[in-house]
């Protein structure tokens, strides 16, 4: 575990705050210590934090600094598996939202875009066609 200083100002978070970062599974666990709420953050390989600040969270900067200093990288998920939803729809490039009903242990996090679920299923079909060992 490395100690990193996060510098991006954000509401409710100190401007200069020491953070403890470690890779765990498909994520980076960031601990800002007992004087910051929320104390624990989880940042995905998509540079999105699990807190309300998303990509604007200082934990994302702490992970970048951790990696720049040679920290261990989080594991890459298997082909076609989404541990977290994509920030933007791979079909229309619009912002996505969570769709728990589409989540699965085999596919990962389900998501929806302004077009509904059709883009999710279209993208899943594209992934299935690209899966190693599938027929062209």
Description:
- This protein has two helices and six strands, in the order E-E-E-E-H-E-E-H.
- It folds into two domains: 2-68, no CATH class; 77-136, no CATH class.
- It starts with a strand and ends in a 6-residue tail after the last helix.
- Strands 1-2-3-4 form a four-stranded antiparallel sheet.
- Helices cover 18% and strands 20% of the residues.
- A hairpin with a 2-residue loop joins strand 2 and strand 3 (27-31).
- It is α+β, with helices and mostly antiparallel strands and 136 residues long.
- The model is unreliable at 2-7 and 9-15 (pLDDT under 50).
Q: In terms of topology, how is this protein built?
A:
Layout: E1 2-6, E2 17-24, E3 27-31, E4 40-44, H1 58-68, E5 97-98, E6 111-112, H2 118-130
Antiparallel strand pairs: 1-2, 2-3, 3-4, 5-6
Oligomer: single chain
Main sheet overview = 4 strands, antiparallel
Overall morphology: globular
Give the beta-strand count: 6
Number of structural domains: 2
Proportion in β-strands: 15-25%
Helix content: 10-25%
Low-confidence stretches: 2-7, 9-15
């Amino acid at each position: 575990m490395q100690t990193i200083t996060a510098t991006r100002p954000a509401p409710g978070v100190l401007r200069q705050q020491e953070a403890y970062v470690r890779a765990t599974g498909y994520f980076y666990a960031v601990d800002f210590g007992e004087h910051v709420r929320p104390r624990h953050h989880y940042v995905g390989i998509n540079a999105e934090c699990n807190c309300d600040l998303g990509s604007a969270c200082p934990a994302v900067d702490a992970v970048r600094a951790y990696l720049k200093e040679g920290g261990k990288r989080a594991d890459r998920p298997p082909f076609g598996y989404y541990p977290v939803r994509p920030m933007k729809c791979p079909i229309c490039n619009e912002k996505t939202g969570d769709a728990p009903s589409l989540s699965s242990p085999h596919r990962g996090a389900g998501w929806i875009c302004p077009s509904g679920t059709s883009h999710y299923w279209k993208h899943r079909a594209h992934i299935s066609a690209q899966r190693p060992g599938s027929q062209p």
